[in-house]
């Protein structure tokens, strides 16, 4: 059963860091359900799966000469932020004590992180909650770093991930999900990361694109004249993300219960509706059904439902999918209006989609869906949104969204501005390196074997024919790869 602790916790009454007992003299598992353990462990793996999914999604949308670099950048976030989370990220975000804006270092180096009930739920110990939330922390910079496509150096990206996770992601996640955070105390509702994950990463991607500058050949009206180089990668990335989102949203119930099931159900509905909505919008222009359009719309639906997944009924998920698909589709044009070369539409999908989801949560959140966890009723019941007559909730959601976006955008710009002044951390590759592509210039490896064959032929002194598929990789083809 997963109704709660099997034995009541009798630890310190004060909210202080505590290991939760001595495993040498007592069984620390008796306080928790094995069913909850199994579910959250599986959800942790599902969220981890999303990170390479992001890499494949971005890789397919990009040019082939930078395809592997985007997969590498997404996946390296797992290592960089994984260490940051161990070092001080978890403590800054989910310590049991702290101010209204940031936690303290009482769990530095994961000290005293063991069997004490976590700040997220009394049904999960700190240790398991740390593992699960660490996947969210690694995922978020991976979402943002797609903005470095075609012209961002690898080393600054690595440094940026560590710094950004520390001074942007951790504070925003703290004020949203930690009981001491200002947004949590205000009454903001964010089930699985509308602000800490999506709005924060969307704002960071926009800031990164602004600070890097436009790619060579960028046109303010039409962007760059090329199509996604590998739609199969886009589909593969979408599959990883869609499957992983069941752990992302479903696991945010922090237990194996009806609320987790409902979160998975509405997630699936919103994704499907969002994908088909985007397809229809694209069909009206070209009279063709777009695979990339469906994948983009599915992601828009998933992003929109994220903050609401544990608060809304199935019928509302249809609205989230439709509105998310429409708004995010039109939001892809914003980058042309403001003249920022944001190559992966991260701002449109995650930044705008997260805001849409937050605001719709303020309208459609219901107390009876939250109560499906078996504990959010009575004095613990949420007030809900407009459907429950709680009119102020929309204002809370708006305040949280604006604060998260503004903080992430401004601080990201400051981080990148300072980094660019430090020798060795200049953000952008040279014009020559941009021409040959990040795969060759920064990695020395390629996403496709035939590129390496062409490279060997080049070194032998015989240039590839301009009409060959591989020729475009060296910048000879009409689309300059």
UniProtKB/TrEMBL annotation:
Instruction: Identify the stretch(es) annotated as Disordered.
Output: 461-481
| Cited PROSITE patterns | AMMONIUM_TRANSP
Q: Which parts of the sequence belong to the Ammonium transporter AmtB-like domain?
A: 38-448
Subcellular location(s): the record lists: Cell membrane; Membrane
Q: What is its main location?
A: membrane
Tell me the membrane topology, using the record's own terms.
Multi-pass membrane protein
* Composition bias, Low complexity: 462-472
Q: Which residues cross the membrane?
A: 37-58, 70-88, 131-148, 155-177, 189-210, 231-248, 260-280, 292-309, 315-332, 352-371, 404-422
Output the superkingdom of the source species.
Answer: Eukaryota
Q: Which Pfam family, any one, appears in the UniProt record?
A: Ammonium_transp
Ordered alphabetically, the record's keywords are: Ammonia transport, Membrane, Transmembrane, Transmembrane helix, Transport
Q: Which family does it belong to?
A: Belongs to the ammonia transporter channel (TC 1.A.11.2) family.
Name the record gives this protein: Ammonium transporter
Q: Which organism is it from?
A: Remersonia thermophila
């Amino acid at each position: 059963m997963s109704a709660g602790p099997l034995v009541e916790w009798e630890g310190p009454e004060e909210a202080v860091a505590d290991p939760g007992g001595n495993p040498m003299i007592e069984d620390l598992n008796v306080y928790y359900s094995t069913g909850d353990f199994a579910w959250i462990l599986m959800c942790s793996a599902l969220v981890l799966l999303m990170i390479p999914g992001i890499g494949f999604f971005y890789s397919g949308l990009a040019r082939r000469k930078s395809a592997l670099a985007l997969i590498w950048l997404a996946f390296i976030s797992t290592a960089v932020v994984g260490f940051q989370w161990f070092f001080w990220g978890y403590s800054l975000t989910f310590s049991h004590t702290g101010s209204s804006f940031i936690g303290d270092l009482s769990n530095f180096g994961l000290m005293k992180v063991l069997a004490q009930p976590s700040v997220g739920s009394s049904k999960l110990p700190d240790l398991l909650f740390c593992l699960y939330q660490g996947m969210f922390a690694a995922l978020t910079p991976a979402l943002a770093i797609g903005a470095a496509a075609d012209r961002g150096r690898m080393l600054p990206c690595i440094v940026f991930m560590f710094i950004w996770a520390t001074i942007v992601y951790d504070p925003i996640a703290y004020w949203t999900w930690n009981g001491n955070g200002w947004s949590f105390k205000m009454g903001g509702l964010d089930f699985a990361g509308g602000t800490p994950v999506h709005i924060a990463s969307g704002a960071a991607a926009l800031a990164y694109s602004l600070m890097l500058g436009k790619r060579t050949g960028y046109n303010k009206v039409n962007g760059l004249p090329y199509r996604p180089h590998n739609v199969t990668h886009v589909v593969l990335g979408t599959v990883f993300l869609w499957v992983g989102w069941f752990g992302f949203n479903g696991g945010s119930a922090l237990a194996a219960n009806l609320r987790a099931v409902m979160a998975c159900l509405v997630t699936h509905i919103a994704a499907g509706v969002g994908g088909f909505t985007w397809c229809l919008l694209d069909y009206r222009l070209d009279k063709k059904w777009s695979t990339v359009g469906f994948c983009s719309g599915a992601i828009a639906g998933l992003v929109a439902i994220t903050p609401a997944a544990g608060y809304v009924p199935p019928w509302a998920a249809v609205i989230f999918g439709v509105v998310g698909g429409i708004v995010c589709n039109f939001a892809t044009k914003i980058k042309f209006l403001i003249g920022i070369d944001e190559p992966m539409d991260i701002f449109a999908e995650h930044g705008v989609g997260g805001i849409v989801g937050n605001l719709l949560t303020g309208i459609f959140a219901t107390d009876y869906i939250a109560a499906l966890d078996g504990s959010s009723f009575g004095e613990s019941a949420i007030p809900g949104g407009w459907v429950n007559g709680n009119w102020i909730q929309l204002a809370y959601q708006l305040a949280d969204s604006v604060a998260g976006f503004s903080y992430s955008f401004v601080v990201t710009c400051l981080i990148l501005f300072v980094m660019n002044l430090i020798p060795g951390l200049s953000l952008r590759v040279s014009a020559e390196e941009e021409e040959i592509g990040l795969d060759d210039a920064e990695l020395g490896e390629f996403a496709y074997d035939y590129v390496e064959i062409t490279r060997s032929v080049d070194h032998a002194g015989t240039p590839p024919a301009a009409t060959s598929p591989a020729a475009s990789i060296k910048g000879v083809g009409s689309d300059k790869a």
